[in-house]
Amino acid sequence: MIVSTRGRYALRVMMDLAEHPEGFIPLKDIAARQGISQKYMEGIMTILSKNGYVEGIHGKGGGYRLNRPTKEYRIGDILRLTEGSLAPVSCLECGTEPCERAADCRTLPMWSELHTIINDYFDGVTLADLMTPAKK
Amino acid sequence: MIVSTRGRYALRVMMDLAEHPEGFIPLKDIAARQGISQKYMEGIMTILSKNGYVEGIHGKGGGYRLNRPTKEYRIGDILRLTEGSLAPVSCLECGTEPCERAADCRTLPMWSELHTIINDYFDGVTLADLMTPAKK
DNA sequence: CAATTACCTACTAAACGAGTAGGCAGAAAG
DNA sequence: CTTTCTGCCTACTCGTTTAGTAGGTAATTG
Predict the structure, then answer these.
(1) Taking the CB of the first residue and of the last residue of chain A, which one, N or C, has fewer CB atoms within 10 A?
(2) Model-level pTM greater than 0.85?
(3) How far is A62 from chain B (nearest CA, A)?
């Protein structure tokens, strides 16, 4: 499994925000609508906020808001941020020191190619794409 | 991460078997060559053996042997068997009851399509492909 | 001021990953 | 027939990750 609840919840919240563009939406409302733990979401929202994917303001009347048009959010960026990595094997996770037998590893090219495929796939989908009802 | 050590070790052992086609190779030798825990591998080998991917015989002079030419082993089959699933999200893992909001889930088609891409990718690679030195 | 909200730190329960340990069972060699 | 080598089986362990809870602090509005 590549994508855990962190990434899936992040997408759902951002889709919810996209559907409610009127001002700032408190997380409480989103969590209630989506049936997601508010407390758990807070941590994920903080990451999204710190990295400039959403804007959050404190206090009464506060909440979260999208920053840009939905077309400018790449799913790949959101998932890499919330999941840490989309690598198919741990050897390819950034931050990991390269495997000692990487030089003559016969399987590494296969993992690398799939890694590229996965990243490209998610980078080719935007939040706007998710908003339109499924055509397939 | 989709592929853990289980799947990676399985591939390495099968590549090792492919390189040593003379009779039955004891797991002890393979584990030593590959620098892998023999005890840990035993569990993985039993799965491969039970499902007809390798043949194992007991006793002195025993060990494991490949069953077919390397070209007839699809990496996808080996990984699905040892990893249980190659699904990008838990919702798609077989055995899991379908998510209650699957019918109107806006992200499900995306996960499904990637799932197909991943399966097709690994099904397009055979053990024979891995044996040839990297060209890329 | 009180209420509401984002944000921060710490804790927890369960599952999973990657092994270990200690056997039993089958087959060959002596 | 016994020893030795092997696959196979069950159970246990230890660390990490996942998916949360709990309880605060800080900012903003009415």
Answers:
(1) C
(2) yes
(3) 27
